[in-house]
Amino acid sequence: MGIPKAVDVEVVEEAPFRLRVPAQGDMRVDGVVFTSHELLPDPAEDGSLQQVVNVATLPGIVEASYAMPDVHWGYGFPIGGVAATDVERGGVVSPGGVGFDISCGVRLLTADLDRSELPIERVMDGLDRAVPRGAGSGAVWQLSGRAELERVLLGGSRYAVERGHGEDRDLERCEDGGVLAGADPGQVSARAVERGLEQVGSLGSGNHFLEVQAVDEVLDDVAAAAFGLAPGQVCVMIHTGSRGLGHQICTDHVRIMDRAMRAYGISVPDRQLACAPVESPEGRAYLGAMAAAANYGRANRQLLAEAASDVFERVTGQRLSLLYDVSHNLAKIEEHEIGGERRRLCVHRKGATRALPPGHPDLPPALRDAGQPVLIPGSMGTASYVLRGVVGGGAFHSTCHGAGRVQSRKQAARAITGGALRKRLEGQGIAVRGASARGLAEEAPEAYKDVDAVVAAAEGAGLCRAVARLVPLGVVKG
DNA sequence: ATGTTC
Q1: I want to staple A239 with a disulfide (CB 3.0 to 4.6 A). Which of A27, A122, A331, A377 is the partner?
Q2: Whole-structure pTM over 0.90, yes or no?
């Protein structure tokens, strides 16, 4: 990824948890980072602040190039970045603004059980057998060919439910009702299809996980009651995305846009920011393929949730109930007010979560008064959070997505062995299943920011409110 | 994140 540029940018702390980088040079808007100086990665080692500056040069960008408190270095755009472009005024879409794991996201399910009555080892043994994971193949579904895969790409979670994996109520609890409109399977390459055929209903590797958790602390009584969360309650959190299919789609369309940019007269300070106007053949092609990958990721989480629910039913007699499913890697066409006018924007959220405020019409009735649940997976062995959107938030109704890395995978693996980490987690009473030693070491908590501090910064910046803090009882890792 | 280097 190269060496970070010596960043010579002015950073003004204009409010608590709000740093501003005034526009200079080719920047069309300011940069705004919702964080403190303490949480901001060291510019000598991490290029994310320079990436916030680079994103501010994109054609059609409005308001600001935003970054969340968990910001760190990514491909082109920072992870934790939010950028919106005005579709009718030459605004671009950039695959790097979504990332390689298109529609990576989180689903949280609740069990009507207290942690004291959960036979955790038996549940974990069941999950160990039921959850396909790791870099290779193995999945809940085996698709017969392109025709069947296209039903997944068009139907997302709804298709999984139609096939008997879940119930209609689940779809109300999914962003966009479980299906992102505008999917165009014709823009998905043969290679992406090939990679996708054998991975629907699989966890993957890296920071993806399935955790059994318990509510440690309720921080907003009213919203927690609306979400069905109580102290001691058992939950299941699933963090995964669109696997090799989404990765291939990103690769394919970065290449297409890299070649097309010149024809549109677009120049960017970093090739990884390859982009095209939303209203161009290349822009539409990417958004159609991206929506297809989003639906694949949603079906993936739906299938894994059903597999986990089957395990809970066998072991405890109780099925799981879906609280919410939301992505943190997506570009969406949304309407927002800019300078007193409703504008159609392409909102890129990369390692950032949509956080709709109470009363928003896109929320289902059961969640409308409380606001959208925002699901924040912590690093392994640490807390996770449920947050909610707030009226008057910021960054086009967005907030953080997780703890955010501070060490590379290589650095983390050098610092601790997988065996030592497993022992430590088990010493903390956390059951670990099926993780490779290397994979475990790469995900060591010390490789991440403190999720409590990240959430405090997101709240302090006024982006969201904390509803509940969850702690892990057992983790299934790829 | 990723058939972890087309």
Answers
A1: A377
A2: yes
